[in-house]
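Mods, move this if it's the wrong board.
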Amino acid sequence: MATNHQTHRLDAARRETFTRASLRQLRDSGRIPAVIYGANTEPLPLHVDFKELAKISRTGRAEVFELKLDSGETYPVLIKEIQQRAGKVVHVDFQQVSKNKPIRVKVPLNLTGTAQGTKVGGVLQMQSTELEVEGLPDDLPAEIDVDISHLGTGDKLTAADVTLPAGVTLVGAEEELLASIVLPRVAEADLTSPDAAEETEPADEK
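Not the wrong board. Structure tokens:
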């Protein structure tokens, strides 16, 4: 399984003006308006560099990182929501977390190996690409590696089959289906034949 992530840092600056013109000017200069939400603080408006934000967001929303303000204050946060408009990021919400309190996050699954069933014509179907877990921020992995090489045709991968790091627990049901190996659907060409049509055509009602 993946090792726990290392702490990254994102620099931010307080936002002093809130007009549409000022927001547009920020975005035109490569900055993204943002807000920090937390149990111990009032919502704090700020702005961050788009390129640096993109680097952080690629690791997924289970990634806890340090948000450092230009005033010197530092907050451990998660990405709560990224708002987009016409395919462009226009705003981001950060959630402040306490390193001493467990939090719930959805961690991406990284499937490793080649399922045995796919070697004999089976198809891998993913029902979920992430798993909701709970743990202290420092214990949460950036992703969870899951070896699927043992899966044969007809086999299923459930949440119970995933080995979690120490200190991390499953939030949802153990029966939650994550992936399965199924045979390709039989082509429906035979249904177009006259015999098949007769067999599938309902009898006349009398």
